[in-house]
Design goal:
2 copies of one chain form a homodimer.
Chain A (H helix, E strand, L loop, with lengths): L7 E3 L4 E2 L4 E10 L2 E8 L6 E2 L2 E3 L6 H13 L5 E8 L12 E7 L12 E4 L10 H15 L14 E2 H12 L5 H10 L3 E8 L7 E6 L17
Parallel strand pairs in A: 3-8
Antiparallel strand pairs in A: 1-2, 3-4, 3-6, 4-5, 4-9, 7-8, 10-12, 11-12
Chain A binds a DNA duplex (27 and 27 nucleotides) through helix 4.
Amino acid sequence: MERVRWSATNSEGYEAPAALATDVVVLTVRDERLVALTVARDGGDERALPGGFVGAGERPLETALRKLHEKTGLDAPYVEQLGAFADPGRDPRGWIPSIAYLALVPPDTRVPDASACWIDARNPQALAFDHEEVLAAAVERLEGKLWWSNVTVGMLPGAFALSEARRVYEAIAQARYDPATFGRDLKSTGLIEPTGEQRTAGPGRPAAMYRFTSDRPAWGAGRRKRIAA
Amino acid sequence: MERVRWSATNSEGYEAPAALATDVVVLTVRDERLVALTVARDGGDERALPGGFVGAGERPLETALRKLHEKTGLDAPYVEQLGAFADPGRDPRGWIPSIAYLALVPPDTRVPDASACWIDARNPQALAFDHEEVLAAAVERLEGKLWWSNVTVGMLPGAFALSEARRVYEAIAQARYDPATFGRDLKSTGLIEPTGEQRTAGPGRPAAMYRFTSDRPAWGAGRRKRIAA
DNA sequence: GTAATAGTGTCTTTTAGACACTATAGC
DNA sequence: GCTATAGTGTCTAAAAGACACTATTAC
């Protein structure tokens, strides 16, 4: 199925991109696994990341958020740019660079649109365009920032128990953390604070609830070398 | 001086970007300061980052390297993508998204082209377009990766003494490191290895030379939490 | 009571910073 | 010899991991 390729020429007479696209990698944790959101492509059984074309005069970030909402009904609390994917041939329709975004949503997020579904983020099925590459970049970014920033702010509800946070961290890092050490280390980052509330869920002692001190991207204590004398 | 804005419409009848640009932030260390390379703009006394338009069928990374060479005569050993800058109005000529790259060159690099000159990367003069924002993103990226990757591979010659490396790290981190501790920590990253050579420069004991074990982007030991039992 | 989850305290290991000391060059 | 730079060894401080112990809930 070879369609006619789109093309564009600018007013100076040079070939121009046929469009500017955005793609969004929405990640969350389900059943202790990192999963990504995909949508069905029109007229094909292949799946793809949600995304769409940037309108003239529109900021690409706004396009990404708008398309995410249109295609999945979701609003992501945390979004950051992953980078541009613009190699020739990435889109069979023509010269269409794409700006990819990473969005995170809480584990219990329900997707209103039935055609959207979650796939394993680390062993994805075949995806359209270069979306497998984009997804891999998103996973790598998330893994890398896990302990150095409050990225997970988007993956946890407004108030959360340390055990909830731990399960999210464990799914992303693919590791098991000692509950005591995890709590101590997370608190010592300065990124979270107690809400004062408690929550009882099933058997067991009620858990103290915490919130992130900021819902904007921030770096934690991180590891910065001290200054020598 | 308001020129006519470029425009483009694709074969589907929708407005399209007038062009796709790349910009390169070339950073190095001179006189213990982090500096960035700028070029004179045609027909203006404002300065800008080197860059240019991506040709149809060209990979943006290749465009960046080609433009860097054309405008400054430089070939950078280390280049990575910074991200896309595509907000409307960033380029007065029209809708022109840009993909920015970070390139690093050794401290003693001479720029063949006389119109190119180095400016303070942390307190830049006014630059064209959104290039001050791009430069700030580059500095932040470099600072963030300093101790977690071999980014500095691009900023050191093929063989270097630990004291040379230390001066580069100090300029980037804006800190002073204890020479003994610095050497121990850099060696423990596993990113460098001794060449076996020695070098005498002026008075003082000759320095053992080292090289990076890889000249491709790589992450060092980094800090990854261990797995709980 | 038992099972389950939450949280505290503390010992040990690892890593980073400081700094005294030795080594080798030019003069 | 003196000064300058390079490199080693080791003490100390801080962070991370392990794990025993206590606390509070449902049943």
